[in-house]
Amino acid sequence: MADKSVPNVEVFLWEGTNKRGAKITGEITGTSMAIVKAELRRQGINPSKVRKKPKALFSDLRKQKIKPVDIAIVTRQLSTMINASVPIVQSIEILGRGHENPKMQELLIGIKNDVEAGNALSLALGKHPEFFNELFTNLVAAGEQSGSLDTMLDRIALYKEKTESLKGKIKKALFYPTAVIVIALVITAAMLIFVVPQFKEIFEGFGATLPAPTVIVMNLSEIFQSYWYIIFGVLFGGVYGIIKLKKTNEKFAHWLDKISLKIPIIGKILRKAAVARFARTLSTTFAAGMPLVDALEAVSGATGNILYKNATLDIRDAVSTGQNIHQSMRTSQLFPNMVVQMVAIGEESGSLEAMLSKVADFFEEEVDNAVDSLSSLLEPMIMVVLGVLIGGLVIAMYLPIFKMGSVI
Question: Is the pTM of this model over 0.85?
């Protein structure tokens, strides 16, 4: 959590005159109006009017959340400024006061105050684990100890950019079919609740036997009308329960992740993504000079799949007893032979970091291509599903009318 002792940083609009007496206006961030006026005077500006900038409701709501991509951008900016010999405290303050997101401003100013008080940057970041995990802080600590903080921050930024890009591709692969299925279910439910009953009133006056598909649809309509809240409650409650249970029950999470890897097409994408994360994280930690056993400990939590997490922990245990990493990877039977061979070459040649980076690049590109192929494949399949589902309902409702027309 952010340090509660740090006052909120706000944006102020000001009007005033400069040293030549010319009228000028602008924006400035600060914690109070008095501090803002003092800062303007320090800059040689005589403020005549200072007021808080009005907040746009929807844009502010959108900006309240700090996203991982924001952390990646700030990390890269901080690396660039430290490399340019800007003092670390000043660098963080510049980034904090210049950021558009008030939450990010508050976070960075809190970190700046901690560093200014004499704490190491890694310790200041560690106070905010929701934004800077253990891997992030350990890498920063390694950079501080080696005197190459700017280089380490650049590597961390690259790592987070690649990781977030990979997550985005996975979400892209899963979002489209999920969204279409949800919309199809909502439309179907709306037709069963609101449209089908209108046809039922018409059919009651026919005095003839209705076709079987029509009877089935009308029975479904009656069920939805009577128990729609239970049906939707079970559906949404089931999804929420699965998500919650996955976080709290390791056995269920293991079973769910195992099943997800067996899903046609999607499973292959998830496998490639897990291998890419494994290789990218291990490459970054190994390049930071972290001992291999400690690096594998950090990697285990970054694979995104509990099967690969457990396999990585097993690899760590094997490596700690003196076994080569490629032999341990082969034993797990979760890594493609090509990956195992490249790691073996990296170990033998002393270029494990570079080899792992190439593995990560290769599998990230594979995920990207697989997602594009999946999107192209799913579009016609989804259209067919929608056509069968919605079209089936429509045909079932019009069958009695067609039957009457043929009789007449």
Answer: no
